[in-house]
């Protein structure tokens, strides 16, 4: 078994704006990804549709040219929204990479994809040949989840590889971010 | 981070009659529990209520002396059912321990508890101070799940510690049990 533990693994970690996904990454680094393992860590940020989070019925309207956000907003607003989305993605991934900075023998890759996080995470787990998917339990905030449903529940049910769902303990949530940072 | 990885961890693995939970245990041994870690592995088998798997409404009737299985069946049948339950528990845990036989620096404990697996697994994760809960995705069979709902989904939502849900790949399911055994 020790030999198998040394085998190459692709660990996909879904990160978002929430502290919980950073805690999940930190937990993963401390418990699943070891310095002496031939691991590739893939940090995935999913950029939700520009129209924002919405129920499936509304989301379907995005396929209609008349209701597509690109046609609802002026080019300036659309460009600003795109810039903002890119900045959020960059910020999240920079924070995630900072947590990984002490890893010496682990290759760290980043991916930014667009779409419904539920579908995209499942698709990417398959496409990237992930050996395990790691994610926070309550990604994408309360209001967003009201429309989206639980991303982690959806992925746990639909992803074929093992799924590790990490909740941020309340004590740590109360204490702030610093408690789970690796530095 | 390497130091934290060496810290003592209590890994709770819920096992049942299904091959998937044994695959989950095997995955856990290969990817989460390392020989050089100060880990305690707790193998938990939950013995469902003697009345069998049933919806919550029916299960509630167990509290009623008139409908409690102990009063529905003769003492001989009740004793035979108890013996059978114990034999199943022993068999499952023996199979699980066999998978762990090569672990040299990991303490392996076993627990048998009675009750609804959904509730018992969540309670035991809390009570035993589990650092992570590992379980198969589809425990307790198709018909049983129809009544029970998904045990893993329930636990992923309600357990406070990280939950690792492992699905047995179809290729392995087709190939039979031997492919995931450690021997």
Automatic annotation (TrEMBL), chains A, B:
It holds the Pfam family Usp. Residues 9-167 form the UspA domain. InterPro entries: Rossmann-like_a/b/a_fold (IPR014729), Universal_stress_UspA (IPR006015), UspA (IPR006016). Coiled coil: none annotated. This is UspA domain-containing protein. It comes from Arachis hypogaea.
